[in-house]
Description:
Layout: H1 2-14, H2 29-48, H3 52-58, E1 63-72, E2 78-82, H4 84-97, E3 102-115, E4 118-132, E5 135-150, E6 153-170
Parallel strand pairs: 1-6
Antiparallel strand pairs: 1-2, 3-4, 4-5, 5-6
Amino acid sequence: MTTLIAVIATVLVLLGGTFQFASASQPNAQLDIEKLTVCYALGTDAIGRGDLQGGKNIYPDCFTPNATITAVFPNGDSQTYIGTNAWADFVYSVFQGNGYVATQHLIGTININVNGNNATMTSYLHATHKRSDTSIDVANGTYEDEVIQQNGRWKISRRTLKLITFLNLSSPPSAQRVMMPSN
């Protein structure tokens, strides 16, 4: 089998192509890094349910202890915090101050570039913040992350959330409910 791989690699190089072996020390780097943004969403949604301590317990799995986390709002204002506890307290105060009873952070279009023990990751955010049965706030934006590998684990060392929209959607209370068809 080793001989076959060597022959294929040689033919590929002779034909003008390139052949790169995957790094044995970081075979799952991109997957491990992608899991960090999911980790963050789970911690933030715990806080969105009112479970500040639950969010604080999750965030250290996503971030370095001294991570810098910044939110840039659509009007250009920004807030920056150092460390996950300070960020969790900020998120909790925003969620409580706006009367949110639940949140759901959906992450997509994840782009990761790995360079040794450093990486960058961008991902898109669509987040629903429930105020009541008839009112939600919807946020859209982009996370821009700097990620490092420490002690064999990837962690976000710097996260910047750039919000592009923040919109309230409300509907009047209605006596009609969504009816499900009966079988």
